[in-house]
Design a protein that fits this description.
Keywords: Oxidoreductase. This protein has 492 residues and is of the alpha/beta class. The chain is built from 16 helices and 22 strands. Helices cover 39% and strands 22% of the residues.
């Protein structure tokens, strides 16, 4: 199926969209990648109903069968990885290395991980309890078992910055637990998710699984996303995106008591103490520019640097930027590609201008790359001499912009600055004193803390404090997120 012919995937059928099609634009060239289907509200509800109908049989399917489906889907994605990476690059503007290694390859790895996850035990025996005779019955010993059950129909609303890994991180564990899914991809790059659906459809059909386990709908209208949340057949919503949208989703979920998993905004604080390895800190914080062109909620965009090394840090980060080639993401030497759209480029640039007005020093960047006349490019930008009350320090910019805030005191001041934020997704600490780094990490109000690294352990729980989200996923924690706990009690 060509991208220009793309249809919705509802109940095992490729369905013509009621709302026609819209153009998906390559952020690097501003050319049309393909046409994506625009679903109607009724079609979204029909997709949720198809998932509800499929839930009974899929939830009762043996874990080994679910594991086989996920493993087969991973094989199919791996087989077509080159073609899929080209599509992901065209839709999202990712560099070649990112599209191959961090988008498609990570999606394959996640399906393989949750093929194994489908086989993880779902029953936990609890210690027997001795009860005395009373109003509740005769005395005796009661045994108990905690059992994880699938939630039901899960709506997965995914982000535009990674059209493969992000959906895979939702769909694979949800299916492994026996849920059925309705996937609503980001409107900017939905075509990759339809390719994922094709792989899953083939794997499910080969296994003889009835249709409706996986459904995909897309659209630019707000009503499409709203329908995916308020559909009466939906039991849970898993969302990755902005805090503002997450709050609106939570309000709707609250009215229906629907379960939620929310990965929302971030403004990662990177504390750099005076004894830190500055080269390591610069390389880590510099990933903000190189990784998805700053369009990542885990980026260390807020550098809190001790005054004793502040000038040296700014000088090193400035020099580091000189090695970051901005341009065509298909070119081998490119490190920083475009942001997702012209509207988002304008938003990032408006924040840089706001920083100037607030008193920040634009050390590097702040202007549109002069050598690029097509594409939505933003020059990697370093804002120095910032204070924690500036909007460029407090608000998520979601672009290749780092704000540096100096501090003069001890770890108490650093912790206070880091915690003075609405967000709390992932923070970072750089220090040669490992004991201090761990001590500081425990005091940070963030769902994750990296010590002298921006790397992640993909079995560690992932999620945010405060306005950065609700719930945890990744590793076995994702299986827990897409399940309900049931207790079973019996007389011994």
């Amino acid at each position: 199926m060509r991208a220009a012919d793309q249809r919705l995937f509802i109940g095992g059928e490729w369905v013509a969209p009621d709302g026609g099609h819209y153009e998906v634009i390559d952020p690097a060239t501003e050319e049309t990648v393909g046409l994506a289907p625009e679903a109607s509200r009724d079609q979204v509800h029909a997709a949720a109903a198809a998932a509800r109908e499929a839930f009974t049989s899929w939830s009762r399917t043996a874990p080994e069968a679910r594991a086989a489906v996920l493993s087969r889907a991973a094989d199919l994605m791996h087989r077509n990885a080159g073609r899929y990476a080209e599509l992901a690059q065209a839709e999202s503007g990712a560099t070649t290395a990112t599209a191959r290694g961090m988008q498609v390859a990570v999606a394959v790895a996640r399906f393989r991980r949750y093929a194994k996850g489908a086989l993880e035990p779902v029953e936990t025996p609890l210690p027997p309890q001795i009860n005395e005779a009373g109003p509740m019955g005769r005395g005796g010993v009661l045994g108990a078992l905690a059992v994880r059950q699938p939630v039901g129909v899960v709506t997965c609303i995914t982000s535009y910055n990674n059209p493969w890994a992000n959906p895979a991180g939702k769909v694979a564990p949800a299916l492994a637990m026996g849920n059925t899914v309705l996937v609503k991809p980001a409107p900017q790059d939905p075509l990759s998710v339809y390719r994922m659906a094709e792989a899953l459809d083939e794997a499910l059909t080969e296994a003889g699984i009835p249709p409706g386990v996986v459904n995909v709908v897309s659209g630019t209208a707000v009503a499409v996303g709203e329908a995916a949340v308020d559909a009466p057949d939906v039991d849970m919503v898993s969302f990755t995106g902005s805090t503002a949208v997450g709050q609106r989703i939570a309000e709707v979920c609250g009215r229906g008591m629907k379960r939620q998993l929310m990965e929302l905004g971030g403004k990662g604080a990177a504390i750099v103490f005076g004894d830190a390895d500055l080269d390591s800190a610069v390389a880590g914080i510099g990933t903000t520019y190189a990784f998805y062109s700053g369009q990542i909620c885990t980026a260390p965009t807020r550098a809190l640097v001790h005054r004793s090394v502040y000038d040296a840090f700014v000088a090193k980060l400035t020099a580091y930027l000189g090695f970051l080639k901005v341009g065509d993401p298909r070119a081998r030497e490119t490190v920083v590609g475009p942001v997702i759209s012209g509207a988002h480029r304008d938003r990032v640039e408006s924040y840089v201008e706001l920083g100037r007005k607030e008193g920040a020093t634009v050390v590097v960047g702040g202007e549109r790359p002069a050598h690029l006349d097509k594409g939505f490019y933003v020059a990697p930008t370093l804002l120095a001499d910032c204070t924690n009350d500036m909007r460029v320090v407090r608000e998520e910019i979601f672009g290749p912009v780092v704000a540096v805030v100096p501090f003069d005191g001890d770890e108490d001041e650093a912790v206070a600055l880091a915690n003075d934020s609405d967000y709390g997704l992932i923070d970072y600490v750089w220090s040669a004193d490992v004991a201090r780094a761990f001590r500081v990490a425990r005091r940070l109000r963030a769902g994750g803390v990296g010590i002298n690294t921006v790397g992640r352990n993909m079995e560690a729980p992932f999620g945010g404090f405060k306005r950065s989200g609700v719930g945890r996923d990744v590793g076995s924690y994702a299986l827990h997120a897409y399940s309900e706990l049931q207790s079973i009690v019996w007389p011994g």
